[in-house]
Amino acid sequence: DVFEQPQHVGHKKIEFHITSDIPAVLQNNSEKEKNGKRSYSKYVLIDLYAAAEEINNTGFGRIFPAPSSNDKMETEEEEDEIPSEFISKRDLEKHRLSREEMEKYSVFKNYEPGDPNCRIYVKNLAKQVQEKDLKFIFGRYVDFQSEVERNMFDIRLMKEGRMKGQAFVGLPNEKAAAKALKEANGYVLFEKPMVVQFARSARPKQDANEGKRKK
């Protein structure tokens, strides 16, 4: 008598009344739920998330935005690039003369790349150029994780005499040398465009000297 006896209460139906305009996506989802005899209250949050995602196309609730196509291209380029202690291909192209511009310089008159080999010849270098500058450029064509390639990479910069402003760079193979010639020829270093060619072989001169010695 002291406490009121609890009255049995049946299952109550929960309904949601949305007064604002319901997007077409929600209406379609609501109709599907009715036809499938699902409980709207159980899935309403999921449908709201899905509707917002389809309407705004921004990925409601995402932590990280999806990368754009430009971001993907930059990522691929960065993965393809060499370590930062060497010049990038992008910088080489940016500061390299075009063919039309090369024709305006006398140093490129009658330019011939020469016979392919693993050694290249560089001329028209500014007096400020040092070996570290050439290593910064041509080191990108060497795999420094390979002891063989490290040993084959050699730079000889001439700073005196008739050969002043010229250099010889030894690379691991002809393929690397050909790529270096193609990408670095015409590169403007200290306001002077480099002229890059394949170095001439020294063997004929050695043979001639040996012939003189025999005589």
From TrEMBL:
CDD domains: RRM2_RBM40_like (cd12239). InterPro entries: Nucleotide-bd_a/b_plait_sf, RBD_domain_sf, RBM41/RNPC3, RRM_dom. GO terms for cellular component: U12-type spliceosomal complex. SUPFAM superfamilies: RNA-binding domain, RBD. Coiled coil: none annotated. The keyword Oxidoreductase does not apply. It is found in: Nucleus. Its main location: nucleus. This is RNA-binding region-containing protein 3.
